[in-house]
Amino acid sequence: MELTSSVFDTEIMTVPGGHETIVRGGRHLFDRLPRALAGIERIGVLGWGSQGRAQARNLRDSLAGTGIAVEVGLRPGSSSEADARAHGFDVGDWLDVAGRSDLVLLLVADAALAAHHEEVFAALEPGAVIGLSHGFLLGHLEATGGRFPDGHAVVAVCPKGMGDSVRRLYEQGADTDGAGINASIAVHADPDGRATDVALGWSVALGAPYTFATTLRDEYLSDIVGERAILLGAVHGLVETLYRQFRIDGDDPVTAYERSCENVTGPIASAISDGGLTAVRDRTDPAAFDRAYAAAYGPARELVREIYDEVAAGTELRSVLLAEQRLAARPMSAIGGSEMWRHADAVHARRAAGAPPVDPLTAGFFVATMTAQVDEFAARGHAWSEIVNESVIEAVDSLLPFMHARDVAYMVDNCSRTARLGTRRWGPRFQAAYEQVALPAIGSTPDPSTVDAFLADPVHEALAAAAALRPKVDIALT
């Protein structure tokens, strides 16, 4: 997809079948931010969740000395007010902050935004820019016949990682220029022709190493599907399945945990981050990997396709909103109650001895599921930058390192409400597919065409191009 800017230099990134226009980030570009954000004197960050907390701090630091103020807006009675003030922000009522800001970032929870967006829209000053970091609101407006207000630019900057990653890698960027989380931008409405530069300025200020273009709808689809598949839902179903299988095969609990969860969050994630998807196969028994990959790819692709259809049809959005109504009186229970999670501390204590070897069964299942999501996104026409960031880079450079530091169940129980609901719905579906379809097929001779298609998949070229745009900096979790 094409990007043009009067402020930032664009570059051509070669991808399978063509090219994309991208913008590299870096702190050396911060002096261009006042030009990109021309006419913006105050940025209102509505919400102090994972993204709000990180983005407000990054924006304030990047814009220091420019005269552009960053203020936090919260709903009355918010429990986050004390923390926002402790971080040095002026905090006001969210509608008041929206009414006095030139760029209003809607970073509150999805369900709250769906319920109260009309109040926010009514509070906006003429010409204020509406900023999103997720396309959920677009999906809600389409489903309910609503629309964004006329006369306002509507832009999205969507970091390809959780809020903690956005902040921590930004801080590491003080020592390694360009360290950060990649981001996509989408310009949904541009009444005065300045929206692209505003979006790029916002993305650069967040510390994005490279920024690529998408549409708000494509972002919504890929993000919601990814949460339910390889980023969270499938990972949870996968490690629960394989832990049980390794226990059935005779492993003690700690070894079974190492071969399943620890393998995914540790050596498999590191191999992909360092060398791409084929690097995982290279670090284990290729024949065993191939059998596992061939057994898991088909059922994983079927599920990703089903998730995509349900997200596109609005079913997932409706399920989130219905669940939010129920959860007002009945909170969600935690999922980390199965037997495997009791052994996490023992596994973590053994890390000083070094990472375990890549397990071919775990590797084959995980890479097959990741590739299934990649291939489904490609078949649906998503841009390659979006495909590799939403399916691979966000997983191995943001989410899996945090899962490694804590565990998968902890991450599921502490992610956004939308992601948590989707993971609880689809994780068991992946678990059933692995147990009932993939594992029984392990003993069969793998279809060589499935493995050949993986080795020739254009994702390898696209991922290599994207990986070259970011300095190699492992996220600091302490």
Q: What's the number of helices?
A: 21
The CATH superfamily of the largest domain appears as N-(1-d-carboxylethyl)-l-norvaline Dehydrogenase, domain 2
Q: Could you describe the largest sheet, including whether it forms a barrel? A: 10 strands, mixed
Please give the CATH architecture of the largest domain.
Answer: Orthogonal Bundle
Radius of gyration computed on alpha carbons: 22 Å
How many structural domains does the protein architecture include? 2
Provide the structure class: alpha/beta
Tally of DSSP β-strands: 10
Output the strand order for the largest sheet. Answer: 1-2-10-9-8-7-6-3-4-5
Globally, the shape reads: globular
GO molecular function: isomerase activity; ketol-acid reductoisomerase activity; metal ion binding
Family: Belongs to the ketol-acid reductoisomerase family.
Protein name: Acetohydroxy-acid isomeroreductase
Cofactor: Mg(2+)
